[in-house]
Amino acid sequence: MSISWPLVIFYVIALLTLCCAVLMLSFRKVIYMALTIGGVFVGCAAVYFLLGADFVGVAQILIYAGAITILIMFAIMLTNHEAAEPPLSWNLKNVASAVGCVLLAVVLLLAVRSTNWPGGGATTDINGGNTNPIVIGLMLFKQYTIPFELVSVLLIVALVGAVILAQDRKEDE
Amino acid sequence: MFQYWNPYLLVAIFVVLGVFLPVSSIWVIGPILRPNKPSAAKQTTYESGVDPIGDAHVRYNARYYLFALLFVVFDVETLFLYPWAASFHKLGLFALVEMLIFLFMLVIGLVYAWRKKVLEWN
């Protein structure tokens, strides 16, 4: 009996990631939620590595597991984080959002299954002989120039917005 | 296939060791070796040898968030610099201009933050 090792490793990673996600939802203290969301980010990065997208995996660890988790932590520390969330109750709002999430998952799954992905499975090299960052660089700076420059606009908006918010806060004190 | 998996096998071994070593030393080997004589003073939170004041769950200054956000912005910038540098030989002058525009936009943000005195710590 031959075992497909990538598949086995995928299921192990998926199980760990889903465990982190379920823990995140079941924890009632926000700081534990922030820690487990870090675990989810690392699990996603492992899936990217498994798919051969090395650069995206590194980016996921660097930006999401590193910077975004820290940002969430700081945001929690600024606010009232001693309060624990009350236990889950099945009211109309929660049921509606649960149904909405399941429907979204079904739609996404159908979309993924019906899309004709280029490359034709694991047999072809999507990087075309180059290393992963080089291919991403060529795509980014030749084909997607405008989106790349828009990223800088997005970053500057986030920065200026945070500065303005922090200034307001300082005047209050 | 083995060629592809080989580097990540090392990463997997590293992760397993990284989890196993601290867990085994804190919860398995440590309790066997160390003496266990707890007292009230030993059980308090360590705060550089001084008696801790108040709760650990204090609210931090909003300034910390700004520094974290600045870090995220320049982290993303560094991330974009890497594929640019890797593929620069195949791209040429146009990519240099593109990256200079990108960097210029972020420098505007940094100068703005600087002028608004959010980088000063007092």
Molecular structure report:
- The complex is a heterodimer of chains A (173) and B (122).
- With 173 residues, chain A is mostly helical.
- In chain A, 76% of the residues lie in helices and 0% in strands.
- Chain B contains five helices and no strands.
- The termini of chain B are far apart.
How many strands, what sense, and barrel or not for the largest sheet of chain A?
A: none
The major pleated sheet of chain B works out as: none
The span between the termini of chain A is 69 Å
How helical, in percent, are the residues of chain B?
Answer: over 70%
Average pLDDT, all residues of chain B: 83
Number of H- or I-type helical stretches of chain A:
6
**Which class best fits the helix and strand makeup of chain A?**
mainly alpha
Principal-axis shape of chain A equals globular
Domain module tally of chain B: 2
* The CATH H-level homologous superfamily of the largest domain in chain B: NADH:ubiquinone/plastoquinone oxidoreductase, chain 3
- How many strands appear in the DSSP assignment of chain B? 0
Q: What is the CATH class name of the largest domain in chain B?
A: Mainly Alpha
Mean pLDDT of chain A: 83
* Distance separating the two termini of chain B: 57 Å
Question: Could you say what the CATH topology of the largest domain in chain B is called?
Answer: Methane Monooxygenase Hydroxylase, Chain G, domain 1
User: Strand share of the residues of chain A?
Assistant: under 5%
Shape of chain B: flat
Poorly predicted regions of chain B are none
Oligomer: heterodimer
